[in-house]
Amino acid sequence: MKKILVTGANGQLGRCIRDAAADYPDFEFVFVSKEELDIENIASLKDFFGKNNFSNCINTAAYTNVEKAESEQERAFAINAEAVKNLASICKENDVALLHISTDYVFDGKKKAAYVETDATCPLNVYGASKLKGEQFIQEIFDRFFILRTSWLYSQYGHNFLKTILKHSKEGKPLTITTEQTGTPTNANDLAKALLQIIVQDSTNYGVYHFSNGGETTWFGFAEEILLQSKNLKEANLAKTNQYRTFAARPEYSVLDNTKAHTILKLKCINWRESLKTVLKKTVIN
Ligand SMILES: NC(=O)c1ccc[n+]([C@@H]2O[C@H](COP(=O)([O-])OP(=O)(O)OC[C@H]3O[C@@H](n4cnc5c(N)ncnc54)[C@H](OP(=O)(O)O)[C@@H]3O)[C@@H](O)[C@H]2O)c1
């Protein structure tokens, strides 16, 4: 029986994997929060792996605050790069296949066409640089990895763009949203299912893959669609801006080309608008 460790399990993607796991009664899952297993603590990692006979590790643990990372570079690199290096070494020692998540922010967005896995990386912000370093460490350490780069993750869980838009519109707050970046919103539930499908397949086609929902839009386009589908567009006070100031620079265009994931891993990349419908049904705003 496969025994699958999921780190960072109280995060957005971790919680979506918990839900998706219900469809896999033949797998044994071990979900650990940061409090239960801190991936920065190498002794705890060694001990935990030593006590369990894992077949796979899905690492969803990460430093994900793109804005704060600009002033917390050390923390971002400690979690997204150094801890990932240790985790990869321990996976190698214990013969555990690692499934790891990375980001479209490893690219600078100057290509103006969907990015393929072999395109040159050039992160514009600290978060992207720390995630890229994590990818590089894994690839230097061993071969049994899947790195899935994804983009603009959202779901019914945690703090994310979808929930912010719904909350602000419910409170009647004005929404001024940027048109300056183009990318693809990705339903974290779809990513969770994709990760489990890779494990089911027993695939040995290890490597770096791009996995996002299909299509592309801007953050403004995403907000507009959220309000349209949730029937709040008419009342919403929604405006565009092309001068939204942030600490972290972001790629202007970071659409990911999913062809490799589709052809080699047979993963389905549903259009983002279609996938949004399913998340909206599950999302509750208090
Ligand atoms: N969110 C996006 O838009 C996006 C886009 C592209 C790629 N990604 C990648 O997708 C993955 C999942 O992201 P997400 O949206 O699920 O992020 P998330 O909601 O922030 O979840 C990350 C989890 O990792 C935990 N964590 C942080 N440091 C840890 C440590 N040292 N040991 C163990 N756990 C730790 C966090 O706990 P605390 O909250 O207590 O710190 C949190 O529960 C990440 O690799 C992220 O880089 C995300």
Account of the protein in words:
The protein is of the alpha/beta class and 286 residues long. The chain has helices at residues 12-21, 42-51, 66-69, 73-93, 126-141, 161-170, 188-201, 219-229, 259-265, 272-282, and strands spanning 3-7, 28-31, 56-59, 97-103, 145-150, 153-154, 175-178, 182-183, 186-187, 207-210, 217-218, 238-241. The strands form 4 sheets. It has a 6-stranded parallel β-sheet, sandwiched between helices. Strands 6-9 form a two-stranded parallel sheet. The protein has a two-stranded parallel sheet with strand order 7-12. α1 crosses α7. The longest helix is centred in the N-terminal third of the chain and has 21 residues, at 73-93. The radius of gyration is 19 Å and the shape is globular. The structure holds NADP nicotinamide-adenine-dinucleotide phosphate.
Structural features:
10 helices; single chain; about 290 residues; two-stranded parallel sheet; alpha/beta
Summarize the entry for a quick read.
The chain has helices spanning 12-21, 42-51, 66-69, 73-93, 126-141, 161-170, 188-201, 219-229, 259-265, 272-282; strands at 3-7, 28-31, 56-59, 97-103, 145-150, 153-154, 175-178, 182-183, 186-187, 207-210, 217-218, 238-241. The chain has 286 residues and is of the alpha/beta class. The strands form four sheets. It has a six-stranded parallel β-sheet, with helices on both faces. A two-stranded parallel sheet has the order 6-9. The chain has a two-stranded parallel ribbon with strand order 7-12.
